[in-house]
Amino acid sequence: MLKRLSDTYLPTSPALLVIGVVVLIPIAWLFALSFVDAGIFSLVHYERVLFSGTYIGIFITTLLISVYVTVLAAVLGYPIAYFIYMLPRRAAKIALFFVMLPLWTSVLVRTISWLILFQRRGPINETLQFLQIVERPLQLNSTMLAATVGMTHIVLPLFVMPTLNAMRQVDKGLLTAAASLGARDFRRFWSVFFPLTTPGVIAGSLLVFIYSLGFYITPQILGGGKIVTVSMKVAENATMYSEWGASSSLAVVLLVATLVPVALLALINQRRRSKKRGL
């Protein structure tokens, strides 16, 4: 038993040590600071976070924009993943390269690009006016729409990759069997193919949602100060007011909000495996 444990954990002990120093210790210190006010133990920071109308509004805004981004990423990402799945292998590699290409570009650069596109004299407004869809330039920057679109562009590959991986694991023999039983293309897709890809959809949606909860740069720039998320408030409390306890309590609550969907997904997967074993 001891030999098995040593063979398993001894080679990874340096990496575990680094993770403990770089990740776990700062989180523990953050957690401790959230219970300190004026040098003594206090729950005042959590009372402010949980019962203040301002903070509740910030959390609602963060959750809403994360849900919007997740839904939009799913609506756009699934057809993209399916399109890549249907391509020949060489063409699929090229298409996948272009999907992953934005990840090689700085988030700040991509955000500034959307800021330019959304300007009153930017390409989007100029095109809408040229087509006579609108008479005056629309106010696109400093809106929830701008922040949602910019964030979706950044996280879209995070949805496409697990969804595409799930699609590639579908047994094509099942689709052939459904066709032999008289199922048309749409019926085969909706009744056979799509349900088998839901694990990838759920994984991609979870990745996008968690990533969106912690966004800072994109809503800060495209929101123009009108959209305030939890991460922005954490930075404001720490840098402008030096309220480390308030910042820590916000960060802890955001961390818990991030872990909840992960725990729920793990519980659902565990129950599914238990049912399969029972069968």
UniProtKB/TrEMBL annotation:
Any one GO BP annotation for this protein: transmembrane transport
Ranges of residues in domain ABC transmembrane type-1: 59-265
Alphabetized CDD domains for the sequence: TM_PBP2
Compartments in which it is found: Cell membrane
Topology within the bilayer: Multi-pass membrane protein
Keywords tagged on the record: Cell membrane, Membrane, Transmembrane, Transmembrane helix, Transport
Cellular component annotations (GO), alphabetically ordered: plasma membrane
InterPro entries: MetI-like (IPR000515), MetI-like_sf (IPR035906)
Acetylation recorded as keyword: no
Origin: domain of life: Bacteria
Pfam families for this protein: BPD_transp_1
Major site of localization recorded for this protein: membrane
Transmembrane segments: 12-36, 56-84, 96-118, 138-160, 192-217, 249-268
Family: Belongs to the binding-protein-dependent transport system permease family. CysTW subfamily.
The protein's name in its UniProt record: ABC transporter permease
Native species: Paracoccus pantotrophus
